[in-house]
Amino acid sequence: MYLEGTSKCANTDTKINRRFTGSCAQGTVPYLGIFLRDLTMLDTAVKDRLENGFINFDKRRREFEVIAQIRLLQSSCKNSHFRTDETFVIWYHSVPTLREEESYKLSNEIEAPCEQSPGRSLNPTVIVTHCPE
């Protein structure tokens, strides 16, 4: 992953880079949301077909690049071995699980919604739509 150049190891001085990568634990834990955001933006913002009716291969190429990055990260972690941190496991299992209503109420206490419209229910509502091309 170092060869791809990440912001964590972006330095042109090769001596510093060699020293840094030698002490750096190899591996990457990506945030999947970035990849999903990119794929969603491509799906909604870029048309599948060009104005002349041809397939938009630029869109397909960009989708392929995002998926290829995900596959590269998946294959790079196959050789990783993790030790179980028993202290963390005990703590994790001790954290209380909230029901959806409790979670929503606590979320509103931490960060209140901008405006409450009259008659709005306390339960969150999600509406998923697909934009026509």
From TrEMBL:
PROSITE patterns: RASGEF, RASGEF_CAT. Coiled coil: none annotated. It comes from the Eukaryota. Keywords: Guanine-nucleotide releasing factor. GO terms for biological process: Ras protein signal transduction. The keyword Manganese does not apply. One of its GO terms (cellular component) is plasma membrane. The keyword Kinase does not apply. Residues 1-113 form the Ras-GEF domain. InterPro entries: Ras-like_GEF, Ras_G-nucl-exch_fac_CS, Ras_GEF_dom_sf, RASGEF_cat_dom, RASGEF_cat_dom_sf. GO terms for molecular function: guanyl-nucleotide exchange factor activity. PANTHER family: GUANINE NUCLEOTIDE EXCHANGE FACTOR, RAL GUANINE NUCLEOTIDE DISSOCIATION STIMULATOR-LIKE 2 ISOFORM X1. This is Ras-GEF domain-containing protein. It comes from Danionella cerebrum.
